[in-house]
């Protein structure tokens, strides 16, 4: 790596408000290509770039770049510090025994390899995730199951001593995303202009660039960069939530009843506030009628935002009770906003 690149703040501190520079990714184009990850033509050293060091609106991780693997599937390649806490957490929660655990919303890691020119940097390949607003909910059950799955994720991470999973600040966007590969076939998305978001080749002005929710759509945290390790909290395997149940059905197994209230740290309380202020509140705009909407969660939201909110497991239990207190008619038929 050249000295100019090493001293470039955009390259050395991408989470400080900067994207890694285009020049850096151009210098790594063939390293990634040899591994089977093809960047956009804009980053090929043999071609004239359309612009220099522009912002990349299609990608929410400043240390990452979108790439294609053979067959056309989109992935994200992130350049991370080899000794970073986030890399350690990603690898920990991507182990086979962790990957199958209920509530594990850690984004899957497809591959990990060092930069041959800079051992202090490691490349991590993950799915290309998209913002939840691009999903078209079918009914109230879809929204409630989405919220439930995020709460299950908090139970999982908090039981492993990890908090600040859903930071409202400094990250302005809610960090939960969905994997579009379960909906869109390879090749349906076409990365053409590096200055613009991804778009379908057959997209027209009159089409909606949304996709209908499906029961199999997986949700993940697209990064763990702001997570905090709570050294005073030990793993509580008994607090893991049961497996996700299909929409329209009550959970097939009951939630465990904790003998004592779990210790709540500031980071854990912040996560629960984020569920209310970001996750639930953003869904209010999707509902145009209070009778079919989310107003029945008002007290639940107030509890999450209180000075002494319930722990994640208790919150999940209360939420599921509220969820299935709605009649089948209210959950399955509603008015769109």
Fold and architecture overview:
- Residues 243-257 have a biased composition (Pro residues).
- Residues 233-266 are annotated as: Disordered.
- This is Protein kinase domain-containing protein.
- It is a single chain.
- This protein has helices spanning 3-6, 9-12, 22-27, 29-34, 85-93, 96-99, 140-159, 266-283, 298-304, 312-323, 328-332; strands spanning 64-68, 74-81, 111-115, 118-127, 129-131, 135-136, 162-163, 176-179, 211-212, 219-221, 228-229.
- The protein is α+β, with helices and mostly antiparallel strands.
- The chain folds into two domains: 3-129, no CATH class; 133-178 and 208-332, Transferase(Phosphotransferase), domain 1 (Orthogonal Bundle), CATH 1.10.510.
- The chain has a four-stranded antiparallel sheet with strand order 1-2-4-3, with no helix packed on it. Strands 5-8-10 form a three-stranded antiparallel sheet, covered by helices on one side. It has a two-stranded parallel ribbon with strand order 6-9.
- A hairpin with a 5-residue loop joins strand 1 (64-68) and strand 2.
- The N and C termini lie far apart (51 Å).
């Amino acid at each position: 790596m050249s000295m100019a690149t090493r001293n470039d703040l955009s390259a050395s501190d991408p989470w400080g408000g900067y994207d890694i520079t285009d020049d850096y990714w151009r210098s790594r184009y063939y390293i990634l290509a040899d591994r089977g990850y093809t960047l956009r033509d804009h980053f090929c050293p043999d071609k004239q770039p359309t612009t220099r060091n522009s912002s990349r609106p299609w990608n929410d991780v400043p240390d990452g770049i979108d790439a294609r693997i053979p067959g056309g599937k989109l992935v994200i390649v992130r350049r991370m510090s080899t000794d970073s806490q986030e890399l350690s957490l990603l690898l920990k929660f991507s182990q086979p025994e962790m990957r199958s655990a209920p509530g594990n919303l850690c984004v899957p890691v497809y591959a990990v390899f060092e930069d041959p020119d800079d051992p202090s940097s490691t490349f991590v390949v993950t799915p290309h995730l998209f913002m939840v607003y691009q999903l078209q909910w079918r009914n109230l059950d879809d929204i409630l199951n989405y919220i439930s799955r995020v709460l299950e994720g908090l139970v999982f991470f908090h039981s492993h001593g990890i908090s600040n999973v859903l930071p409202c600040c400094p990250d302005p966007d809610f960090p939960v995303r969905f994997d579009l590969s379960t909906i869109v076939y390879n090749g349906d998305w076409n990365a053409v202009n590096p200055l613009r978001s991804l778009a379908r080749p057959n997209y027209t002005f009159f089409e909606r660039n949304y996709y209908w929710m499906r029961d199999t759509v997986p949700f993940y945290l697209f990064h763990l960069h702001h997570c905090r390790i709570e050294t005073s909290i030990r793993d509580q395997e008994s607090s893991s939530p049961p497996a996700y149940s299909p929409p329209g059905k009550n959970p097939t197994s009951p939630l465990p009843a904790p003998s004592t209230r779990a210790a709540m740290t500031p980071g854990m309380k912040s996560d629960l506030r984020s569920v209310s202020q970001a996750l639930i509140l953003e869904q209010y705009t999707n509902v145009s009628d209070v009778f079919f909407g989310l107003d029945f969660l008002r007290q639940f939201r107030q509890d999450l935002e209180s000075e002494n909110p319930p722990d994640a497991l208790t919150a999940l239990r209360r939420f599921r009770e509220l969820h299935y207190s709605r009649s089948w008619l209210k959950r399955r038929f509603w008015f769109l906003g």
